[in-house]
Amino acid sequence: MGLPMVRVQCPACGGVEVPAEHLECEIEPGEALMGICELVCPSCSWILLVPATAEEIRTLWGNGARYLWGATPFELLEPRYGLPISWDEVLDFVLSLEDLCPSQSAAGPDGVT
């Protein structure tokens, strides 16, 4: 009998299959209804973060997935509202930071102005 396989969606490669033991998963504290799994895409090596239900994660743990240690980005499970941020908004934000700290923005990579 082979290893249990999990099919996930990679934004670059599409659907890929990985052994359950290649996943690291954690259930969100508190509600314990949702969680997140981390894995490396076997095709492109991107780090993928995949939402899963607590029941799915317990099943994955039972089939070889490991616990996800350290800071887990549960914010990725939160619903998103509004339009995505644009490059113009990012540039405006950077410029506003430069206005607040002009001496810092004028410094070169070695910290010399």
Structural descriptors:
single chain, about 110 residues, alpha+beta, 4-stranded mixed β-sheet, two-stranded antiparallel sheet, 3 helices, 6 strands, elongated
Task: Describe the secondary-structure layout.
Blueprint (H helix, E strand, L loop, with lengths): L4 E6 L3 E6 L4 E4 L6 E7 L6 E7 H9 L3 E2 L19 H14 L1 H5 L7
**How many domains, in number, for the residues?**
2
Largest sheet: 4 strands, mixed
Helix/strand-derived class? alpha+beta
| Portion of residues within helices | 10-25%
- How much of the sequence is in beta strands? 25-35%
Order of helices and strands: EEEEEHEHH
Low-confidence segments, given as residue ranges, are none
The radius of gyration over CA amounts to 20 Å
Number of helices: 3
The end-to-end distance, rounded to whole angstroms, is 65 Å
Number of strands: 6
Mean residue pLDDT: 86
Note the overall shape.
elongated
Q: What is the strand arrangement across the widest sheet?
A: 5-4-3-6
Q: Mind explaining what this structure looks like?
A:
By secondary structure, the chain is an alpha+beta fold. It folds into two domains: 5-81, no CATH class; 84-113, no CATH class. The chain has helices spanning 54-62, 87-100, 102-106; strands at residues 5-10, 14-19, 24-27, 34-40, 47-53, 66-67. The chain has a four-stranded mixed sheet. Strands 1-2 form a two-stranded antiparallel sheet. The longest helix has 14 residues, at 87-100. The radius of gyration is 20 Å and the shape is elongated. It starts with a strand and ends in a 7-residue tail after the last helix. The model has no long low-confidence stretch (mean pLDDT 86).
